[in-house]
Please model this.
Amino acid sequence: MLLLASHKTIYEYAGPAVENYNEVRLAPESDVNQTVREFSLEIVPDAQVFSYRTVNGLVHHFGVRERHFGLEFTARCLVDCLRSDPFVSLDLASTDTSFYYEGTTQQLYTEFLSSSHYVPLNAEIFDLAATLKLVTIPNAVERILELKRWVYEWLTYIPGITTVASTAQEVAQHRAGVCQDYAHLMIALARCVGIPARYVSGYLFAGGDESIRGDQATHAWVECLLPSGEWFAVDPTNCVAVNDHYIRVHCGVDYSEALPSKGIYVGPRTTRLSVSVDVQRMPSYEHAWIAS
Model:
């Protein structure tokens, strides 16, 4: 599926700002599941853009030094999404979960098994994980799918009940939230039972299906490590395995390593912040383009 995603961010300030420096994590990269055809990043006021690559993805950064009363940047990407069948190569029959208890696994993937800022592994989270009885499921894929289903059913999707700063523990207390919260809670529970798990940000094409959650903004989902070494991507917000309706952009131990943008400037407070995301299906690459 060929998808065109547009992500626009607008800041307006109460007065003139200067020395405005920003990092954005908005550029997808090609892998076995997607091919990036085009990417553009437009900034107003105009600024020179630099980039560097991390293990989690590509980061762009820029600065605006002259006086300005607002900042706008728009990222557009055209991506061939190739994962039409997310189960095609998965082992659904083997008894393979002993992999998660091996010392080598725990050493190599320590950062994806440990507490992090948004995913604190405390007694409350461990007690919640114990109630799921996931260790009784002998197959790794089935264990991850059951965890995804449980989070989807246990939480209620309510925008505004949490904030961008909410942790997995706070989400568990509210038993509600949005896609970032669903992802953080699933990551926390996965790590509690020894499954390395990471946070993924990107875009979701809903195709007019109003039951799909999270398509109006940057979406978040989870990747869990399988005994094969493959990362299995699932979306607990919509209770599905990630397929060719998703554009993968960035990943990390939690939201703090995959947030779409962050910056600092000298000047008065921000009076308006607006973020809009639009994802469309394109008929073919020959008839698709990124408008400047």
